[in-house]
Every structure is written in structure tokens, then in C-alpha cells.
């Protein structure tokens, strides 16, 4: 294929990413991922910040993972400072999929406590993927500050993130079980129960935690 033809294909794909038709955008992202081209990286990252369709966003992320992380990390890390919540959350999601631990230092406490639930959830997932060996307890301490936050999906995301840290989460959970706020105690107990019996499910663990908190215990006696 000549350079002229390659340039035409890139131009066509980038134009497709801007289409009003989500199917066209999906095919364009697939095309870029199938034939990675460094010239497309910035446009892929930029599109992630504004793309309304979930499936297209997932394809954009996949397309970015097909490029060398040396090219994708700089613009993705830049997006973490964006004022647009979707830009931050999608960049975090993509970083978790790329899995390059050089991004670890960019997963800040500020992102993990972001006021936007989707940003925070993406930061939690990225953090547990990228955390260096030995820093899990410190990460667990930060994650534990978010116990009791949000609705079911947010709480489930946090529980899964903490459980992914294994035994490193235990001290932080024990402290949270003694928190004066019932919602924090319930979430901590539910997380601990889910870690011990994942087959029981999150909703069952939450109901058990509510019962334990109502009885005035921590659940550690059981």
C-alpha cells in the first residue's frame, strides 16, 4: 500500500470518528484498532472524552490498547487533568486496560475521591491494576475513605477494588467497621463478607451487614 493510500485511509477513519451515526463511529474505531497508526492516537483520546455511546467508547479504548503505550500514555495522562468528567473516567479506564505501571503515580488520591462517581470508580479499578508491589496497604487506606459512598453500583465497584487487594485490605476494613457512620460500617462489613463468600453475592452481604450494624456489633465476632 502506498503512503498516499495509507493517508487516505487514516483520513477516512478519523472522519468516521466524527460521524453522527454511532455505527459509523464504531466501524471507524475498529478500523483504527485493526491497523494501528500513530497519527490516530490523539484523535482517539480526544473522541473518548465526548463519545456518548458506550460500545463506541469501548472500541476506542480497544483501539488505543493496540498502539504502543509510549504513544498513548502522554495524552491519556493529560486527560486526567481535564475539567470534563468523561475525559477523566475514560482515560482512567483505558489506562487500566493498557496496564502500564508507569501510569501509577498519576492515579492520585484526588482522582480516587473525585466527586463524579464514574471518575472515582474508574480510578479505583485503574489503581488496583497498576499498584506496585508493597503499596497495596496504602492504596487500601485511600479506598477505605470512600466506604459508604454512592448507590449500589458504586459501592460494589469499591468492594471489588478492595477485595482485589487481598489481605492488604484487612487493616483498613477493620478500622472502617468501627466508624461512627452506619453506612460506612455496613459497607465495610459487606465487603469483608463478600471477600469470604463471593458466591453469596453483594446484595446478600449488604443485608447481612445491615443486620449486624442494627445489632450493634462489627461482624468480626461471627
Describe the structure.
67% of the residues lie in helices and 0% in strands. It contains 13 helices and no strands. Helix 5 packs antiparallel against helix 6 and helix 9 runs parallel beside helix 11 (170-176). It starts with a helix and ends in an 8-residue tail after the last helix. The mean pLDDT is 93.
Characterize this entry briefly.
The protein is mostly helical and 222 residues long.
List keywords for this structure.
elongated; single chain; 222 residues; mainly alpha
Detail the topology: elements first, then pairings.
Blueprint: H1 3-17, H2 22-34, H3 41-48, H4 54-65, H5 69-79, H6 85-98, H7 109-112, H8 117-130, H9 136-144, H10 152-164, H11 170-176, H12 182-196, H13 202-214
Rounded to the nearest angstrom, the distance between the terminal CA atoms is: 68 Å
How is the main sheet built?
Answer: none
* Poorly predicted sequence stretches spanning 5 or more consecutive residues: none
Helix content: 55-70%
* H/I helix tally: 13
The Rg value, from CA coordinates, equals: 20 Å
Range of strand content: under 5%
Total number of beta strands: 0
Helix-strand pattern = HHHHHHHHHHHHH
What's the rounded overall pLDDT mean? 93
Judged by helices, strands and strand pairing, the structural class is: mainly alpha
Shape: elongated
Amino acid at each position: 500500500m502506498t503512503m498516499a493510500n495509507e493517508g487516505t485511509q487514516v483520513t477516512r477513519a478519523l472522519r468516521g470518528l466524527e460521524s453522527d451515526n454511532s455505527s459509523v463511529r464504531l466501524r471507524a474505531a475498529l478500523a483504527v484498532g485493526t491497523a494501528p497508526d500513530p497519527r490516530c492516537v490523539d484523535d482517539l483520546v480526544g473522541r473518548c472524552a465526548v463519545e456518548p455511546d458506550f460500545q463506541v467508547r469501548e472500541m476506542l479504548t480497544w483501539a488505543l490498547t493496540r498502539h504502543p503505550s509510549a504513544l498513548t500514555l502522554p495524552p491519556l495522562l493529560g486527560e486526567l487533568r481535564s475539567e470534563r468528567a468523561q475525559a477523566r473516567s475514560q482515560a482512567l479506564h483505558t489506562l487500566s486496560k493498557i496496564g502500564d505501571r508507569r501510569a501509577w503515580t498519576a492515579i492520585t488520591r484526588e482522582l480516587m475521591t473525585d466527586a463524579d462517581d464514574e471518575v472515582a470508580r474508574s480510578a479505583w479499578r485503574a489503581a488496583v491494576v497498576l499498584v506496585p508491589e508493597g503499596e497495596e496497604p496504602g492504596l487500601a487506606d485511600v479506598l477505605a475513605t470512600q466506604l459508604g459512598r454512592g448507590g449500589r453500583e458504586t459501592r460494589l465497584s469499591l468492594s471489588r477494588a478492595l477485595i482485589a487487594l487481598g489481605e492488604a485490605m484487612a487493616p483498613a476494613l477493620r478500622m472502617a467497621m468501627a466508624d461512627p457512620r452506619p453506612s460506612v460500617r455496613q459497607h465495610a462489613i459487606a465487603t469483608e463478607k463478600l471477600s469470604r463468600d463471593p458466591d453469596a453475592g453483594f446484595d446478600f452481604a449488604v443485608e447481612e451487614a445491615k443486620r449486624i450494624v442494627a445489632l450493634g456489633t462489627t461482624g468480626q465476632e461471627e
